[in-house]
From TrEMBL:
<dbReference type="InterPro" id="IPR050312">
    <property type="entry name" value="IolE/XylAMocC-like"/>
</dbReference>
<feature type="domain" description="Xylose isomerase-like TIM barrel">
    <location>
        <begin position="25"/>
        <end position="251"/>
    </location>
</feature>
<dbReference type="InterPro" id="IPR013022">
    <property type="entry name" value="Xyl_isomerase-like_TIM-brl"/>
</dbReference>
<protein>
    <submittedName>
        <fullName>D-psicose/D-tagatose/L-ribulose 3-epimerase</fullName>
    </submittedName>
</protein>
<dbReference type="Pfam" id="PF01261">
    <property type="entry name" value="AP_endonuc_2"/>
</dbReference>
<dbReference type="InterPro" id="IPR036237">
    <property type="entry name" value="Xyl_isomerase-like_sf"/>
</dbReference>
Length: 297
């Protein structure tokens, strides 16, 4: 059964003690199984305090981050690669100490708009570094999720098939594909088919909508996406991600172009997302059963 989560930026823009406590408490009160903790700056997370808050609330955690230009492990620049590997290992230590199960996001390159294409050597170096990080992650039963994002946020993984190929090159069982409906809606020719084709390589899944607001109020075929997840027999975490200028601050506001206030009430947004996700999963599972129920006697 899929564990359902919500990104912390639905609640708070930072991770001070007060923000951490509120975000975790709100997540638990709404009824989610887990919270996704942003780790763009791993040093800003008080691991002991966060772990205690999670234990108190009785929920789990995952975490996500993206490298920057100075830590880009796909750059084919040895100094940047070194700093990038150190950043990933630092984040991994934080994620381990808060008891999180997944380290996801743009781990394979910088989280930015590139002016030039990636290179074969850059991808090779990225795979080698991620293989080393995956080995350390495996010791603590942590899954790495390589996020497939749109062309304005990376030049390495823009489609699910590219991510599957990268997982195969890395060759570690705890390296999986992190899919996100917002990005797939931009880059995939057929979102549902891409989900089905990714199949056992899916390790993490982000829901949302085309404008990053309320689920079901945009243009993404979410019913089709959930049916594809069920058909692919995906059992991992499904986390709702949404951004509004009411909460998100810099640097994400600038990187993601969050210029509009897409919602006012975080609680209402999160409650709707959980209800919508449960309803879509139920409908998708019932649709899957129709073949069995439609057999001739």
């Amino acid at each position: 059964m899929n564990k359902l989560g919500v990104h912390a930026l639905v609640w708070e823009k930072g991770w001070s003690h007060e923000e951490c406590a509120r975000a975790i408490a709100n997540t638990a009160e709404v009824g989610f199984d887990l919270i996704e903790v942003p780790a763009l700056d791993p040093a800003s997370i008080d691991t002991d305090f966060t772990a205690k808050q999670l234990l108190k609330a009785g929920i789990g955690a995952t975490s996500s981050l993206g490298l920057d230009a100075d830590t880009d492990i796909s750059s084919n620049d040895r100094e940047k690669e070194k700093r990038g590997e150190e950043r990933l290992l630092s984040a991994l230590s934080v994620i381990r100490d808060i008891g999180a199960t997944h380290m996801c996001g743009i781990l394979e390159s910088a989280f930015q708009k590139y002016a030039v294409p990636t290179t074969a050597e850059g991808v090779k170096r990225s795979c080698e570094i991620l293989a080393r990080v995956a080995e350390k992650a495996a010791v603590n039963n942590i899954t790495l999720g390589l996020e497939v994002v749109n062309r304005y946020e990376s030049n390495v993984l823009n489609t699910a098939s590219q991510a599957v190929e990268m997982c195969k090159r890395i060759g570690a069982p705890n390296v999986k594909v992190h899919l996100d409906v917002y990005h797939m809606n931009i880059e995939e020719s057929d979102m549902a088919q891409a989900i089905i084709d990714t199949g056992p390589y899916i390790g993490y899944f982000h829901t949302g909508d085309s404008h990053r607001g309320y689920m079901g109020s945009g243009t993404i075929d979410l019913a089709g996406a959930f049916r594809a997840l069920v058909k692919a027999d995906y059992q991992g975490p499904i986390t709702f991600e949404s951004f509004s200028s009411r909460v998100v601050g810099q640097p994400l506001e600038g990187i993601l172009g969050i210029w509009r206030n897409l919602w006012e009430d975080s609680r209402d947004l999160a409650e709707h997302a959980l209800m919508y996700t449960k309803a879509q999963l139920k409908a998708a599972r019932e649709a899957q059963r129709q073949a069995e129920r439609s057999r001739l006697v």
